[in-house]
Structures are given as C-alpha cells and as structure tokens.
Write a structure and sequence with these properties.
By secondary structure, the protein is α+β, with helices and mostly antiparallel strands. Helix content is 68%, strand content 10%. The chain is built from 15 helices and seven strands. The strands form two sheets. Strands 1-2-3-7-6 form a five-stranded mixed β-sheet, with helices on one face. It has a two-stranded antiparallel sheet with strand order 4-5. Strand 1, helix 13 and strand 2 form a beta-alpha-beta unit. Helix 5 packs parallel to helix 8, helix 13 runs antiparallel to helix 14 and helix 13 runs antiparallel to helix 15.
C-alpha cells in the first residue's frame, strides 16, 4: 500500500512539473501572450495547480461521490489560475486548458490501447493510464524544448493559434466524445489487436482533421488581418496619388505660364521696382514649393505614395522621417510591399511619438542583386528587450512596436527572408531581408 502511494505521488509530481513546463513553454514561446510581472500571483497559481494535482487521485477513487465531478472539473482546469496570474484574466484560458489537456489524454490513451496487452495486469495496472499520460507529456515537453533550442518555434506556432472560446469548447467536446466512446467499447468488448490499431488510426485521422481546421482558421484569420491592414494604406496611397496628380496639374500650368511670369518680372526690374520684384520672386518660389512633385523618389511609385502619406502623419506628431535608397519595382507584389512598409513605418511612428525629445524615423533601403534589405529605425522611450524576435516588455511598449509583426514576418518568409528586431541606445530597429527574383 505504501509502495503504491509512493509511486502515485511520484507519477503525479512528475506529471505536475512536466505539465506546468509544457503550458509555460507553449504560452511563452508559441502562443506569445503578453506576460505579466506578478511573481506572487504566479506562485499562488502554481500552488493551486499542485494541490488539485495531488488531491485528484484520492478524491476520485476514495472521496464522496457528490464531489466526483467537482474534483474532475477542477483537475481539468487546474492550470488556469497560473495562466490568469501570468498572462491576465481571460475565460478563453479555461476552454484552452480543457482542449489541450484532453488532447494529451487522448494521445496517451491511444498509445495505451495499442500497447496495453504488454503491460496490463500486475503491479502497474492501477497506474497504467497515468504512466502513459506522464510519458506522453514528457514526449511533448522534449519536442517543445528541442524546437525552442533550435529556434524553430514557428514550426508549431500555427497549431497554437488563439481560437475563440466556442471553438475550443467544440473541439474539446469532439475529442472527449471520441475518447469516452473508445473507452466504453474497450470496456464492454474483448477486441483484437487489429481493432486496437484501427482505433488508433481513427484517432490519428481525427487529430489530423482538427489540425486542418486549426490551420484553416489561422489562414482565414491571417487573411482577414491582412485585408484589414490593407484598407488604410490603400486609402493613403489613393489620397497621395490624387494629391500628387493635382500638384502635377498645377505645376504644368505654372510651367505653361513661365514665359508670361518672367516677362512680368523683367518689366518690374526694368522699371526699377526691385522691392516688388523681390516679393514677386518669393511668391513664385512659394508657388513652386507648394506644387512640387513627389516628396520621395525611391523608384517605386506605390512606395513613394505610401511613404509620403506616412511622412505627413509623422510630421503631425513632430517626427522627422528620412528615406534613403531605392525600393525595388516589379520584383515584389504590390500587396506585400504595402503590408511590409505600412506595418514597419506605423510601428515606428507609434513608438517615436511617445518620445518627449527629438523624434526621428530613418528608413534605409538596400538593394544588392537579389537581396533587398529594408531597415526602419526609430527613437523610443526606453530600450526594450527582444526575445525570439518578440517584444518582452510592458503591454504599452509591446503594442507600440509589435503591431503587425506577424504580417511582416509572413511577407519576409514568403520571399525566403526574415525579420530581425533589435533595440539599443534608445533606437529601435526593424530590419526585413527579402530574397527577390531576378
């Protein structure tokens, strides 16, 4: 009896530590939720997690029947207090914990079904299910650690898409229904090895379907985000185009009248009306300045129009914006170009306008053969910590720098490149590298 208790405590201790590590890694490296600086609350959440973890087994098997379902529900969502303490209050975490916890249980259950004849009966019979769950959780932890160490978190990030509470609950119920049906069949009937394998294959197909649903959901979300992000930049481009067209029209009229203007100026000088001539020249300069062409000439009309619009927004916030270099034309799709420039510059403006002193944004475009590097630097209030190419500071700083980062990364990866974030000496730099076709 004592030996059994010791084994049970060992199993639930290992499961508790590994399960906590899995959720922490998932939220820190894959979900990328904003982390709160509440160490006391986190420790309380961990304490609640382990208390429920240890009470589960004795309460389920030896406690009063009236508490059975209460303890079961608490056990299924035991990680939620820790998530609330570490990442903010959100009811979605409840459904999320149910879904991913049940997913682990279902995987371990099907592994157990395939191999259960090998270990059923004997000393480990009572702990058979817990041992398989523990091994599955350890396997998941190993996979997550390897991906993090190899800096390949993006490989699984799509599977950790933040779904709605309704979607998490729906997928949880599908998984749970299959799991309960599977258990009931194996309890009532003596099944052959081939049936066990078929059951496991059916589960794999179900998991594949759920993964496909999650990926489709992620693609739809990304597409909607992209469309939403394009609305404002496209309006800005259109407005800039209309304005530049009007300026060009006025400039053509001015040039057409140049002969008459110069004749009038010559007459004023001939009549020795130098003061009037000087005022006339100043008005001509003002007219030329007011109707001058594009503010930027990067070699890409859409980029010029978008940058001119962004420069106006920057100027309204007392930010000096400079652009250096050429931007490729016809080698990158217009939609991707707009997503890249608008998100990078919008981030820079949001961060720079919070600075009280000198506010600057420096945009540099470097084009070398098939490599295009777009670097955007901006003044910032304080140096921010970059981890795994994500902002790891306060919510306000993360929002000012992090808007649309995933969209920028998506464009960079589409062209075989990457996005690199850095911050040093109160200067934040976002550097996108793209490989373009010749």
């Amino acid at each position: 009896m004592i030996q059994n208790i010791c084994i049970m405590l060992t199993i639930y201790t290992v499961r508790g530590v590994v399960g906590l590590a899995n959720y922490w890694l998932a939220f820190e490296k894959f979900f990328v939720f904003p982390s709160l600086k509440q160490k006391k609350a986190k420790w309380i959440g961990i304490g609640v997690y382990f208390v429920i973890n240890y009470l589960y087994e004795p309460m389920i098997h030896y406690g009063p029947l009236s508490l059975y379902y209460v303890v079961l529900v608490l056990y299924l969502v035991r990680i939620v207090p820790f998530l609330w303490a570490g990442y903010g209050f959100d009811w979605t975490y409840m459904a999320l914990a149910l879904f991913y916890g049940n997913w682990i249980d279902c995987i371990s259950q099907n592994i157990q079904i395939v191999f259960m004849e090998n270990i059923s009966g004997g000393f480990y019979y009572a702990f058979e299910a817990d041992i398989f769950v523990m091994l599955t959780e350890i396997l998941v932890l190993c996979v997550l650690i390897v991906l993090v160490l190899l800096k390949r978190a993006n490989i699984l990030r799509v599977y950790f898409t933040k779904l709605t509470t309704y979607e998490y609950i729906l997928l949880f119920m599908v998984n749970m229904s299959f799991s309960l049906m599977e258990v009931r069949i194996f309890e009532l009937y003596k099944v052959t090895a081939s049936v066990r394998v078929l059951s496991a294959i059916t589960f794999i197909l179900l998991i594949s379907l759920i993964i496909h649903i999650i990926m489709v959901r992620e693609q739809n979300t990304s597409m909607n985000d992209m469309i939403g992000n394009l609305k404002e930049p496209m309006k800005q481009i259109t407005d800039s185009y209309i304005e530049m067209n009007e300026k060009n029209t006025e400039l053509r009229r001015f040039r057409h009248d140049t002969k008459n203007l110069l004749f009038a100026l010559s007459s004023l000088i001939s009549d020795k009306k130098y003061e009037q001539a000087s005022e006339y020249i100043e008005k001509m300069q003002e007219e030329i300045e007011a109707n001058k062409g594009k503010a930027f000439d990067t070699g890409n009309f859409i980029a010029d129009a978008l940058l001119e619009s962004k420069a106006k927004t920057a100027a309204q916030n007392d930010i000096t914006m400079t652009v250096e270099g050429n931007i490729p034309a016809n080698r990158i799709e217009d939609v991707n170009l707009v997503i890249l420039i608008s998100n990078l510059v919008d981030n820079a403006i949001e961060a720079a306008k919070q600075v009280e002193g000198e506010k600057k944004i420096e945009i540099q475009s470097i084009l070398k053969k098939n490599i295009w590097i777009l670097s955007v630097k901006n003044s910032c209030v304080q140096d921010v910590v970059i981890r795994e190419n994500r902002i790891e500071t306060t919510k306000e700083e993360k929002e000012s720098h992090g808007f649309g980062i995933s969209n920028i990364e998506r464009v960079a990866k589409k062209y075989g490149g990457n996005l690199k974030l850095s911050c040093e000496n109160l200067v934040f730099t976002a550097r996108a590298t793209l490989m373009l076709m010749a």
